Structure prediction request, 679 residues.
Amino acid sequence: MAGSAHRTLAEKIWDAHVVRSAEGEPDLLYIDLHLLHEVTSPQAFDGLRAASRKVRRPDLTIATEDHNVPTTGITGPGVPLTGPDSPVTDPVSRTQVEALRKNCAEFGVRLHPMGDADQGIVHVIGPQLGLTQPGLTIVCGDSHTSTHGAFGALAFGIGTSEVEHVLATQTLPQGRPATMAVTVDGALGAGVTAKDLVLALIAQVGTGGGRGHVVEYRGSAIRALSMEGRMTVANMSIEWGAKAGMIAPDDTTFSYVEGRPYAPRGAAWEAALDYWRSLPTDPGAEFDVEVRLDAAAVRPFVTWGTNPGQGTGLDGVIPDPDALADEGERHAAERALKYMDLRPGTAMRDIPVDVVFLGSCTNGRLEDLRAAADVLRGRKVAPGVRMLVVPGSAAVRAQAEAEGLDAVFTRAGAEWRFAGCSMCLGMNPDTLSPGQRAASTSNRNFEGRQGRGGRTHLVSPPVAAATAVAGHFAAPADLA
Amino acid sequence: MDPFTCHTGTAVPLRRSNVDTDQIIPAVYLKRITRTGFEDGLFRAWRDNDPDFPLEDARYAGATVLVAGPEFGIGSSREHAVWALRDWGFRAVIAPSFGDIFRGNALKEGLVPVELPNPAIGEIWDVVEADPATPVTVDVTTRRVAAAGREWPFPLDDYHRNRLIEGLDDIGLTLRFEADIAAYERSRPAFRPAISRVP
Prediction:
């Protein structure tokens, strides 16, 4: 990512945030927004205390409870964390949430706790509150921070040592990454979503395809996506190893941000717009790597293995590992099929599921819930299938209820739950049992990710809903 | 972090690719608020369910170098993965490639992520499996790995090499540039969001 007259979106944002640059050292980057949650922050706050340090910019720091909170029994604001009326039954989870509350109070950080109207998955509430804006640097101790890149922000996940570093200094030392363009031209077919697009991309480039690169998603198919769809694509950047995934801000972005609680207003809005319009990659700017994908060729996608690159079309079959030329890939596919209890040649549509999970920072926004409800309206979840619907935030839940989506889900026999990360990573009580097979709108099909011994297939919200009705993998068009 | 110059120990061969951080430390262990004592969660599911898992093989007891396949440490940003490996006793992980966030976390904790090409990994796997007592040396000062009479150079930029050798704390380093940070803050556009601006 070298400096030049013609710069990419990523280079412009990077250059605008360099606090200090020295030969042979990483640049010191200023961080505009730091998002915190209960899981990766307690040790960072302990570090601050041990060194008698403060949070440098509490006004650029915001916290929420999302990873291990339950998604049932949230009675409203002030729902108790302790005692017989608390929905939190796991004492270890309670201790972690207590630690976040104590740390935020001690260091002056705003927290949206369980029951709060603005609580939710950290990557859902940032955009929703209007905090996620073009041109910002955004970090969080969570790999799916890449989500915020959908707004033309430079956003990436960090570890707990880096969380502590940002809390103390509002900066991060970072080596300049390389740049990559992923151009997706053409139009997605009917019933094909942003999720299918990014799963198809990962299957093409592999889990390490983006390593060391900030990726910019471009092309007519990306421009045509809603902000929700763009967030789904940017969210999954980490699943193919990218440092960050970005989409240039445009009128779709500006109209999403405008009027939200933390969006600039009046003259500040006009100044911000002028700046944001200067951010897109200059004509003539060069990327270190370019990848192309034809949107028209993308079909509804399902993963069959234990990493997000192991997937195929819903119309496809479980591949035969023996047909893979690379020994490492063959070995990985054999291991994955053994864990997933699948046999080569089986049609995806012939595979029954036990659980359907609709939610997560990948697909837990209002548009995702609407898409699934459109499929479920007037239909029933198949006997023996459990479907959980977990809104990405309390506000998404409230809006869905205002639209009557909750009634669609419950009439279909699905569970309508409260906001959180939930079964995406199974830190709270929402987990798969050993051997259970799930169609999940989340982002990772790793072994045991959704519960020990659980088997995860990643899908889009419409495919998840159709699968719940059919009892096996299905597209909405398959349903009678 | 403790300084790291050169380390010699025995190695565990892990012939697997895409070892994600959910495998290294399952999410259930992430509820803890401490920074140490994560060795019980290391590779927990594989240690419990896989009779051939090398970490449970007595021949590799006491090993301090993990040798794995490509894309080690992909997935979740959880630094607990590094803490669990460190708490188990590992000082270095050798693999053809690493997830970016894991690699950064490891460097912060003094767990050295060593990138060697596939053929070198294959050779080390073979010699270690043939003789688990084979010493493997990871030398940060010379940026070389040595085992069974063979040597391989590995990439590590000067900045991170020097940080490892001196055991430097990043925050302390950055706070030397307080004046630069304050100057930058004075130049930030007023339209940037701030939490205090909303009641």
